[in-house]
Amino acid sequence: MKRYEQGEFFLEIEPRRCKGCGVCVQSCPKGVLVLNAEGKADAKEIAQCIFCGICEQRCPDFAISVHKKHSHPHPRPLSPLRERGEGVRGLV
Amino acid sequence: MRVATERLSLLTGAEAAAHAMRQIDPDVVPVYPITPQTPIIETFAQFVADGLCHTEIINVESEHSAMSAAVGASCAGARVITATSSQGLALMLEIVYIASSMRCPIVIAVGSRALSGPINIHCDHSDSMMARDAGCVQLFAENAQEAYDLMLIAQRLAEDHRVLVPVMVMQDGFTITHSAEPVALLPDEVVKEFVGEYEPLYPLLDVDHPTTQGPFALPDYYFELKRQQVDALDAARTVWLELQEEFAALSGRRYHGFFEAYKLSDAEYVLVILSSTAGTAKVTIDRLRRKGVKVGLLRPWVFRPFPAHEIAQALAGKRAVAVLDRAISLGSWGPLYLEISAALGRYLPTRPTLYNYIYGLGGRDTPPELLASVVTDMQNEVDPTVLRYLGLRE
Amino acid sequence: MPNTKELAHREELHKRFTGAHALCAGCGIPICVRTILNAIEEPVVVINATGCLEVATTRYPTTAWNVPWIHVAFENAAAVASGVETAYRVLRRRGKISQEIRFVAFGGDGGTYDIGLQALSGALERGHRFIYVCYDNEAYMNTGNQRSGATPLAAQTSTTPLGEKSFGKPQRRKDLTEIVAAHHIPYVAQASISDWYDLARKARQAASVDGPAFLNVLSTCPRGWGHPTDQSVKIARLAVETCYWPLYEIIEGRWVLNYIPEEKLPITEWLRPQKRFAHLFEPQHKELLRQIQQQVDEEWEKLLRKCERYEAL
Fold it and tell me: Which residues constitute the domain of residue B333?
C-alpha cells in the first residue's frame, strides 16, 4: 500500500490491486496521477490533489482511495479471510 | 396397503396433493400450469384464496422461472413447493440440477406425463426418468393416498440437514391425478407438528452473515463439490427409513423399506413395476395365485436414491423377474430395468432371469391380460435378450 | 442526494463489493456496480446472472462480495429475484425478519435483452419490488464478444465478423428501455458509467419505489469495443454527448430527460475511437455511417417529443 499525504488528507494506492488501466489518470481533474514504470497508478503530483474522490469512485479495482486524517471512521469489521479474498465458506 | 378407515375423503390424487400442501403451509409456491398437474395448483390456489394457508403463490411465466424462483426463495430461507409435468419438467430441468447442487429442499409434485414428441398429455414415466440424474430424491406414489402421504414425508426428507436436496413426488397423470379415491387425511395439527419449521442453514436474507451462493467453480473444485451431493443422496436412504417409523406412528400407514413387497417372499416369478399399474398387477397376481402360479410384485417407492442392495436381496433366488418400464431410454432399454440389472449384477453371484417390458407409453392402457401374458412368457422361458413391448401394435 | 464523499464514506463503513476480482483492466462493470451498491442506503441482496460480473467475482473459493449474493443461471436473474423477494415478504409477514432489505439483480445485455428477457418481463409484470440493473456492454463479452440483441448496427463481433460479404452486425439493436417501459412499472432509467452522480441518484430513486425498477447502464468494454483501457469513462461519455445513449427516466409512465448536450456531437465521435467500428470509416461504408447518424437523430427526436420535461441534476 502506498500512501501520499497532503495536509489534512491522504491518498492510498494498492499496487497489488491496480491493473494499470489508467482510468484514474484520465479522470483526475488535476493531473495528479500517472502510470509509473511498473504500469501502476502513482500520485506523482500529490500537491495538486483536491481530494475530490473521483479516482476512487471510478477505479474498477478498488485500488485507490482518499481519506481525511483523524476523522477516519471505524470500518465495519470484515473477516480477515474476506479481506484477503480467500475462501469463504459459502453454500456449495 | 391398508388405509385407515376413519375420516375418509373422496379426493383425486391432485386434490390429495393440494391438501398436503395446504397442511404443510409452505412460504412460497412458484407455479406454472401444465396438464395433468394443473388441478394440484388450482385446488391449492383456492385454499390460499380462502385464507386456509398463508402461502404466497407466484404465478410465473414459465416452468423455468418456476424453478428459478423456487431456488431464489429457498436460498432466501423460505419453505418452497412447486408442481409440474412432462414438458414443464423438461423446461425447468436445467435449474433442477442447480437446485440440487445449491442444496435447496424444494418439494416438486409431478403429475407423470409423457414427454413430447409427439405431444401427448397422458401418463407415462418418461418425464421423471429424464430427471433421474439431476440429484433429486424421487418417490413414486401408486394411488391418491400415497400421493398425499409421500408429499408430507417428502417435506421432512428434503429439509433434513443431512439431505437438503429437492424431492420429487410422482403420481400418475390422469389415472391418479384425476381419479377420485378414498383418502384418509391426517388432522391439520398433526401434519403441522410432523413437518415442523424449516431451518435454513445459510439464508440469503441474513444480511449480517452474507454468503456467496452459486459461485463459479473451475476444474480444481467442481469435482469435490459434486461429490458432496453423492453424500446427500446417500443420507436420504437413512432419513427415509427413519421417517417411516415416525409416519407409521402418526397415521397407521407404514412404508416399510424402499418398496412394497406383494406376495413376494415365496414367489418364483416377480413383476417389478412403478406407480398405478401396480394396482392392475396385484389383481392379476391374485388371479394367477388362485391358479397355483407363484407370482409376486416388487414396487419401489424410492427410485432415487436407488435401493440397489435391498432390491437385489429381495430378488435373490427368484426364478425370473420381469421389469415393466413405463419409459424407455432410447438407444438402450427401460430405466428401471437398467437399474435392476446393475443391482443384480453388483450383488448376486447367481441371478434370476431378467426380462424387460416397455408398457403404457403415452397413456396406453395395460389391462390384466397383458400382465398375465408376461408371467406366461416367464413360465415359457422366452428369450431374455429381446426387449419386449406390452400392448404395442407392431 | 449522494455525492462522492458520501458514497466513499458509506463504502468505507461497509465495502459491499471489493477488489481482487478478475474483471479486465478498465472494465466499466465495477464502476456501475459499486456506484449503485453504495448509493442504496438499505441492506442489499444481490442476484447475478451468468456473465462477466458473476464469473470474475466468484471464482470458488474466493468472492468479491460482502453482501448476500446468489447466482443460479444465465437467463433467470429476474425469476430468482422474484423468488428471493417473495420469500422476504412472506418471512417478514410471518415475523421472522424485521429489517428493510433491497434486492438488486445484475445482468449483462446478453442475460437481459436476449436469453433473460422472458424472466425479466414476467417479474416486471408481476410487480416484484426489486431493481434490475442491466450492465450493457453490447455483446456477450464474457465468452469472447459474440453479438447480442444489444449490439449496435455494423458492430464487429466474433459472430458478426467483418468479411467479404459482411460489414458486421446487419441488424439494429433493440430498445430494451422502451420494452421495459411498456410494462408500466414505477421507475425506468437509462444511465451510463460516465455520469456517476446521475447513476447514483437513479439507484437511490430505484430503491425507493414500491415495485419493480429498471436501470439500463451503458458499460464500456475495452477488450470488446477495441479501445485503450483508460478511455472507458470518456467513451461512455461520448455515447451520451452524441445522443446515442441518452440519459433519461420514466417515472410512473412520465418521460423525463436528464441531459441535453450543449453541442450534439456527430455519431462519428462515438464510433471513431472503437476498433469494432473502424471499418465504417472506409469509403464504401459512407452510406452505413449516414444511416447510423439518421437512426440516432430520429431516436433522439422521438425521445425529445416523448419527454414531458427536462430535469437536469
Answer: 261-390
User: Cell numbers at residue B46, please?
Assistant: 383456492
Please report, for the domain that includes residue B330, its CATH number.
3.40.50.920
Q: Rounded to the nearest 5 degrees, what angle is found at the Cα of B276, between the Cα atoms of B273 and B282?
A: 65
Query: If you write DSSP's letter for every residue of A27-92 in order, what string do you get?
Result: H-TT--EEE-TTS-EEETTGGG-----HHHHH-TTS-EEEEETT----PPP--HHHHTT-------
Mutate to test the interface with C, among A35, A52, A54, A57 (most CBs of C within 10 A): A57
C-alpha grid cell, residue B176: 391418479
What is the rounded CA–CA span in Å between residue B68 and residue B99? 8
- What does the CA dihedral A73, A79, A83, A88 come to, rounded to 10 degrees? -150
Min Cα distance B168 → chain A (Å) is: 21
**Beta strands C213-218 and C131-136: pairing type?**
parallel
What are the residues facing C107 on neighbouring strands? C134
**What is the side-by-side order of every strand in the sheet holding A2-6?**
A2-6, A9-13, A64-68
* pLDDT tens-digit map of B326-385: 999 999 999 999 999 999 999 999 999 999 999 999 999 999 999 999 999 999 999 999
Amino acid at position B305, single letter: P
Q: How far apart are CA B356 and CA C252, in angstroms?
A: 63
Reading phi first (left if > 0) and then psi (alpha if -120 to 50, else beta), residue B242 is in alpha
Q: Is residue B2 part of a domain?
A: no
Is the domain of B221 the same as that of B132? Answer: yes
Last residue of a domain, which of B228, B251, B274?
B251
pTM for the model stands at 0.94
Instruction: Find, in chain C, the residue whose alpha carbon is nearest to that of A73.
Output: C13
Cα A39 to Cα B226: distance, rounded to the nearest angstrom: 41
Q: Note whether residue B101 is domain-resident.
A: yes
Closest CA in chain A for residue C63: A85
Compute the radius of gyration of chain B from its Cα atoms.
Answer: 21
pLDDT digits (tens, 9 = 90+) for B367-377: 999 999 999 99
Phi, psi of B96 (to 5 degrees): -65, -45
Q: State how many domains chain C has.
A: 1
CATH class as words, domain A2-70 = alpha beta
Q: Taking the alpha carbons of A25, A27, A31, A32 in that order, is the dihedral positive or negative?
A: negative
Residues of chain B in contact with residue C90, where contact means CB-CB under 8 angstroms, are: 27-28, 54-56, 78
Within this chain, do residues B242 and B272 fall inside the same structural domain, yes or no?
no
B245: CB partners within 8 A, 6+ apart: none
- Residues B94 and B217 grouped into a single domain: yes
- Residue A1: HSE in the Cβ half-sphere, 13 Å Cα cutoff: 8
Tens-digit pLDDT profile for residues B295-313: 999 999 999 999 999 999 9
Residues B126 and B300: their CA atoms lie apart, in Å, by: 17
CB-based contact, A62 to chain C, within 8 Å:
yes
Co-location of B127 and B272 in the same domain: no
